[in-house]
Amino acid sequence: MKKYLLLLTLLSYSVAETYTFLVKPYHKEIELEAKIISEIAHASLGTEVKLFIPNISEIEKEVYAAHFTLSQTCEASNFVFVNKTVEHESLCGTSNRLFFTNNYRKLLSDKTYYGALFWNKSRPNIVFIQKRLEANRITLPQAFAPFVENF
Amino acid sequence: MRIFIVILLCVHSLLAHTLDSLLQEYKQTSDNSLQTVNEKLGHVIIYSQKEIRLMQYHKLNDILKELPMFNVNTNRFGLTSHSLTGSKTTTSGFFRFFINDHEISSTYDQSASLSWGDLPLDFVDHIEIYYGESSFSLGNDTGIYFVRIYTKSATKENGSELNALLSSNGSHSQSFTHSQSFENGWSYLLFFNHDRIIKTTDYNAQTLNANGEKKYFYLDANNERTRVNVGYTDTAKNNYAGLAFDAAPENGEITSKDFFIHYSHLFLEDKSLKTNFSVDINHRKYEEANAQGIALIPVLDFTNLGLTIPKAFYEDLRFVKTNAYVSKSFDTEDNSFLTALNVQNKTYHVSDRETINFANQTNVAGAYNNFDNETTSSLLFQDHYQLSDTLILTANAKFDRYERNGSFQDFSENLFRIGAIYTPFEHFGLKTFYTETALPPSFYTMDYANPSTPDLKSQQYRFYTIEAVFTMGESKFSVDYNHVLIDDFLYLTPIGFINIDHTIKSEGFIFDYEYSFSERDKLHLNYYTSNLSEQINNSTKGGYVKFMGGFDKIDYFASIIYKNAYRYFDVHVPQSFNASLGATYHASKDLSYSIKATNIFDNSTQSLYAQGIGGTNFALDDTDRSVMVSFRWVF
């Protein structure tokens, strides 16, 4: 029994999150952002997600590739996550694809986007706009209801 | 059908749980504040947003006072002074302080104490403290400890926050922070603070006081490539012991207004070309009156003390620092190379400086010497080479050219550093650096130079450090060893600064252990010991125990900071145990109330002072026992 307990203890140690030196670039925030976008995109589309991020950085490419099939162009994608400043004209059309943003003001002013992942009062938030969900014929799981707003 | 509905409900509940828990984890990860740490800059200690909140660190000095190999004292002007272990300095140039990318140390004396020492942390996200030389990467003035203060992210705050604090000693503080993000990618964070500071100490049947007011303003406006920072601080306070011969001036005041603007921009698609441009303007005034005389070294003529000892002194000074920096990095699979050019100009203008002697004669002292302009040009090279999966080698070189006006000579300094980070196992790592750097004399040290050696030389530092870290589960244990050799150390004798004519040696160990019981609960132990080849005039050993945690709507912490006893000539300074306790009640996600008791045993650290020039030494407490209540409201 003692051996098992020791083994279990060692096992729990081996999965712990402490680190010696952070010599590699720290990706955990981007990883979590990618996981959240993955949950949203898969629940919204219900099919394989082909993700396009305009002006994607090398680190984002590396992290997001673990959760999505990354698309090289906006036209070849079915889910576009705009997390940087881009000219609206540089994006492709809305037919057959969904647009998501990390900017709440952009969500309010631009009907292209049906939802946003953004920070407010130092907490991360998710908002979907009901009318735009309907316009895009998106049926989100009931569990997403707390994140849907009617305005 | 029922089974299907149950499964569906379970899946939905799992999805919601997943999204909620992911958001929670996202927030926790952000609060751990690991996104900016750069292990290659030196040996680093991180004070995360979570720790700043749980431990109720309200001011920058709350953090600095517990650092290993570091002493925080009160100087003659009632300002905090930061000294290396074993030594006490009135103002020191060993430490560099940055808010974001901007260095905030004084142009006059290289110390950040007067303007920024009591910096409130309400707008600060996290702090990184490096034992290492910052100027190799950042191009700034040289130093061997540096403190990087990162302000909260405007895009993450995206709201307003009100903080207020009231202390039992009468001090109080109010802060307002506001941030907003725009559709075009720009965001800004604004911070205003007002502090009423009460600091009094009884000495020789008199009360010394450093009471005063401070105001802070800070603006951070940025988008993906451009950042503009504006800082302003306004300080007006009494001068505590001042320069009075009897260490008890009849009256005296220090005022300082410090302004800076810092602009940085990243060019090229990979943001590898970086430019910084900044201007700092500091306007400071000092006045003192004392019937027993004022020990103002630069105006004293030791052959005619009767007519040169002032009984009143006034000065009005203005300093301007302009800095331009450009760097280019080149990254390959194994190599990360950076080269940079930095040019800095400092000017020193005496608007007024006069003394009144005991014959009631007013003497316009003006500038103490003709050195009032310095231009420093620096060329930097840095390379990080990934030799294998487990070994990274680093190398830095910096060439500084100092051009000074007046009768002082121009000079050059060649600095370099080599280091390695070796992580042979996931749970064990080693990090080591060898550094050679030079700390040139400031306007202040040249003003207060011993008249027989006016052209002071740079202090030459050679030091090596090694750190071993072992992690196991939620435990982390580290040992640091450092060995420092200093040539031409700048030392303030009773009649002015001199370069010490022999090599000063210091070495020490730091032992650190932390254990996380859960995401919120953590125990942290630290102990350090050091020795110095000279007579010590400050603690050489110290440590702390701190515990922080939370349950439901309550956060709590307890800490005790130890500094050892020492003797300086006939003064015995006892050991200090500074104990603090605190709790925070979160009434809602946006509103919290806190209470904190500090120096519970009334057993503060003490600082050494001397009467007159080389007169009697004495020690005074650095801090009082106090209880603070505060609230934080986010809206």
What does this structure look like?
- In chain A, 33% of the residues lie in helices and 20% in strands.
- Chain A has 151 residues and is of the alpha/beta class.
- Chain A has a single domain, classed as Rossmann fold.
- The longest helix of chain A is centred in the first third of the chain and has 18 residues, at 28-45.
- Residues 5-16 of chain A have low confidence and may be disordered.
- The chains are: A alpha/beta (151), B mainly beta (635).
- Chains A and B meet through α1, α2, α4, β5 and β6 of A and α1, α6, β23 and β24 of B.
In terms of topology, how is this protein built?
The complex is a heterodimer of chains A (151) and B (635).
Chain A: H1 2-14, H2 28-45, E1 50-52, H3 58-64, E2 69-70, E3 79-82, E4 98-101, H4 104-109, E5 113-120, E6 123-129, H5 130-135, E7 148-149
Parallel strand pairs in A: 1-2, 1-3, 3-4, 4-5, 6-7
Antiparallel strand pairs in A: 5-6
Helix pairs in contact in A: 2-3
Chain B: H1 2-31, E1 43-47, H2 49-54, H3 60-64, E2 70-74, E3 80-84, E4 95-99, E5 102-103, H4 113-116, E6 124-131, H5 135-138, E7 145-151, H6 154-157, E8 160-167, E9 172-181, E10 187-197, E11 200-203, E12 206-209, E13 212-222, E14 226-238, E15 251-267, E16 273-289, H7 305-308, E17 310-331, E18 335-357, E19 362-364, E20 373-388, E21 391-404, E22 411-425, E23 428-439, H8 443-447, E24 459-472, E25 475-487, E26 490-493, E27 496-499, E28 504-516, E29 522-532, E30 541-551, E31 554-563, E32 566-568, E33 571-573, E34 576-586, E35 591-598, E36 606-610, E37 617-621, E38 626-634
